[in-house]
Amino acid sequence: MNIRSLIPFGFGPMPARGADPFGDLRREMDRLFDEFTRGWTPPAMPGTGFLTPKVDLAETEAGLEMTAELPGIDREDIELDITDGVLTLKAKREAKIEEKDEAKKYHLVERSSGTWLRRFPLPFTPAEEKVEATFDKGVLKVVVPRTPEAEMPSKKIEVKAA
After folding, report:
1. Does 105 fall in a domain?
2. Is the pLDDT of residue 135 over 90?
3. Can you say whether the dihedral through the CA atoms of 120, 123, 128, 130 is positive or negative?
């Protein structure tokens, strides 16, 4: 039997001996899915609304201002630190839902937990002893001031024609 008659029209010559057409197909499908889902965030855990909090960063003349929305998180479950010029924000959440009905004879307990970690490299030397953080109604605000050395003004250099 002629094997070429089984190849669909327009597919060209058969692959070289030792080639892996299924591996090539898998790599191409992985690439397509990666491109298709790029930029999507996974849905939040059911009933918690928490997985990837929104964070706003603003660099000002005084330093860096960060605002993070952490709904349903307790102040005690938030960790902030600055190490080697990197601001690290870590938050964890644990939720437990318990339902019980003696008449229907069922007992349901659902638990979910998650930890979120984000690191922000600081574009200046921070004054670590003056960093302030406040947490109110699920919104964390952090102010990281610059050191006096980092506040040095820049000098514009004129570029002359040769």
Report:
1. yes
2. yes
3. negative
The two tokens of residue 49 are 């609304």
Amino acid at 28: E
pLDDT value at position 39?
A: 66
* Residue 114 to residue 76: CA distance in whole angstroms: 15
Q: Which domain holds residue 76?
A: 55-149
Number of structural domains (the chain) is: 1
Query: Which residue, among 67, 75, 108, 80, has the nearest Cα to 93 in the 3D structure?
Result: 75
DSSP string over 4-60: GGGSPTT--SPPPTT--HHHHHHHHHHHHHHHHHTT--PPPPTTT--SS--EEEEE-
DSSP 146: B
* 14-53 per-position pLDDT tens digit: 556 556 778 888 888 888 888 877 766 555 544 444 457 7
Place of tokens 């998180």: 73
